[in-house]
Write a structure and sequence with these properties.
Jelly Rolls, 7-stranded mixed β-sheet, EC 5.3.1.17, RmlC-like_jellyroll, metal-binding, 4-deoxy-L-threo-5-hexosulose-uronate ketol-isomerase activity
């Protein structure tokens, strides 16, 4: 498990490109036959991925000082690869591409497997500290709350699918979903915002090898950017905007962790103050 510390906005103003990427960019998550995890001190989120060629067991490791991974945590999973299964304490859940799963605190035995090792599942997950147990829930995107926003004229026609949120799939603090841009649209989350009560992680995917997303971060008056490629994730502190513009349409998974689960609790940044 890789450990990332928190960063001050005062310091980030002076980071080089390499230092920005070192602190906030998460690369090489999806490696066949491996489970990779990154632990951030920002709201204690764990971002990870499992790409099972053969069945793989999720273990706690020494870093979180727990007997098992979800002893004091909850987890949301979305599969972005081939068909696979997640077995939770003996119950098997079959996940097609873009299916999701919420696993509550206290689940002990978690096993990832692919239906076809030559076309493995790619289980992307976010995990947050938890204080009580909520039921494990299998999530089909077509059964989720979906919101269509933007327009082609504004280059931001997109569909937001909310997988884990109050009133649909209950959790302690994790909120998770997916945003898909329509062909011809490239912007997400613009006009942009911050939210002091929670942080966020984005995973960009459904990108071609020769396409990029310019992910914008920083305070509204001190923006910076990180160049993102397919299946890379980025950590967004609560003081930072989190917006992107791609060379073509793409999809991203967002996971939020913190004090507040209200999706609309945002501090908007006007276009006039962006610098």
């Amino acid at each position: 498990m890789e450990i990332r510390t928190a960063s001050s906005p005062r310091d980030v103003k002076h980071y080089t490109t390499d230092r920005l990427r070192e602190e906030f960019l998460i690369q090489d998550l999806f490696t066949p036959g491996e489970i990779k995890t990154v632990y951030s001190h920002i709201d204690r989120i764990i971002t990870g991925a499992a790409v099972p060629v053969e069945p793989m067991i999720l273990t706690a490791g020494d870093e979180i000082r727990a007997d098992y991974f979800l002893q004091r945590r909850e987890m949301g999973i979305i599969n972005i690869g081939g068909k696979g299964t997640v077995t939770v304490d003996g119950t098997v859940y079959e996940l097609e591409r873009k299916d999701g799963l919420y696993i509550g605190m206290g689940a002990k035995d978690i096993v990832f497997a692919s239906a076809d090792g030559s076309n493995p599942a790619k289980f992307y997950f976010n995990s947050a500290p938890a204080h009580m147990t909520y039921p494990t829930v299998f999530i089909k995107p077509e059964n989720c709350v979906q919101v269509e926003l933007g327009s082609l004229e504004e280059s931001n026609h997109r569909v937001i699918t909310k997988y884990i949120l109050p009133g649909q799939v209950e959790s302690c603090q994790l909120v998770m979903g997916m945003t898909s841009l329509k062909p011809g649209s490239v912007w997400n989350t613009m006009p942009c915002h911050t939210h002091d009560r929670r942080m966020e992680v984005y995973l960009y995917f459904d990108m071609t090898d020769d396409s990029l997303v310019f992910h914008y971060m920083g305070e509204p008056s001190e923006t910076r950017h990180i160049v993102m490629r397919n299946e890379e994730a980025v950590i967004s502190p609560s003081w930072s905007i989190h917006s992107g513009s791609g060379t073509r349409a793409y999809t991203f998974i967002w996971g939020m962790v913190g004090e507040n689960q209200a999706f609309d609790d945002m501090d908007g940044a006007s276009m006039a103050e962006i610098r």
